[in-house]
């Protein structure tokens, strides 16, 4: 097929699919229901040219009763589809259309005098249980299958008493080819489209799942139902928090507040992806990231300190929601326990003293500063410029030495940072 006609055919199919997606659509529909409605309309309306053709050929061949049956479908389906567009009642539309798809080919077979004389036109009835499998549950599908089998048996019992329509042998052979070929093409096209749509929605679901859980963890949850809890002997945790967020939030509308946080976290998410670390969660205006979980990495501390510097640079270089923001950032390194909690809206989270100290580094920090503990300092002192800030009292941990990260060291330098104890410490 030449490119021009092929593009026109593809465009026509896309137009039909887009139109079908709007028929009977309801904003409250789930993804599954919307797909079922679209598939039902595409199948029922898409076969109208064929039923009209079959009716015309049978009428020209001198079998008006057989011609009237597909003609009924050609008239009934547009009316029923218009009614469905108005009522949005998928259950009635699905049942009435499946019933006509099941019964009408059987009636055509009887009108033409049997299975052979009708060129196995009853094969069109197989679309009924197939579409039920795509559009309904298995129990209803079994009922349609039973109905199809009953019609087959009834047709076989009635065939000796039927009068052949006397169609020319060439026409009978032609209809054998058309019936089998058309039904096969429809089944393949229907399954191809349905599977393609299901794969599309599955990929979207997979993407959403990976936005909640690390890939390794999501793969385990998809394979088996069990508690996920692992111990990581060496990891780093970062907390970042907006300075003076509460009074600022009080002066903003809810939409302005959400848009501001979305803009900030979207910026941070991009940096997290660049460093290949794991975003754990956001709590209000607090942003939590970890490195070394769920996959271990030797440079976990350096990766988070580098991320913190880039977060700091991004905040200093631009406005968010038309406002200049300042962040406190705290980092600590040490052993943690990681796992998935909850049955609904579950979350991948971290626990342990290392997490608590990282949170304290943020909450006890200064505006615009990246504050780290000795655990992190010992791991990054050869790579980053650090300034000792003495020691502070931390609830539950006593007095701890802290450092502020000022930047990366030039490549030529490799020595650590010299502690600078503040007066009074």
Helix content: 55-70%
Mean pLDDT value: 85
Largest sheet: 8 strands, mixed
Oligomer: single chain
Summed up, the domain count is 2
Overall number of strands: 8
Task: Summarize the helix and strand pattern as letters.
Answer: HHHHHHHHHEHHEEHEEHEHEE
Strand residues, percent: 15-25%
What separation lies between the terminal Cα atoms?
83 Å
Shape: elongated
Q: Tell me the structural class.
A: alpha+beta
Radius of gyration: 34 Å
Number of continuous helical runs: 14
Ranges where pLDDT stays below 50 over 5 or more residues in a row are 1-6, 413-425
Describe this structure in words.
- Helix 1 (3-22) crosses helix 2 (31-46), helix 2 packs antiparallel against helix 8 and helix 3 (48-60) packs antiparallel against helix 4 (64-87).
- The relative contact order is 0.07.
- The longest helix has 42 residues, at 169-210.
- Strands 1, 2, 3, 4, 5, 6, 7 and 8 form an eight-stranded mixed sheet that branches.
- The chain folds into two domains: 3-210, no CATH class; 226-408, Nucleotide cyclase, GGDEF domain (Alpha-Beta Plaits), CATH 3.30.70.1230.
- It has helices at residues 3-22, 31-46, 48-60, 64-87, 90-112, 127-135, 138-158, 169-210, 215-223, 245-250, 254-275, 300-317, 353-363, 374-380, and strands at residues 229-242, 278-283, 286-291, 327-341, 347-351, 370-373, 384-394, 398-408.
- Strand 2 and strand 3 (286-291) form a beta hairpin.
- It is an alpha+beta fold and 425 residues long.
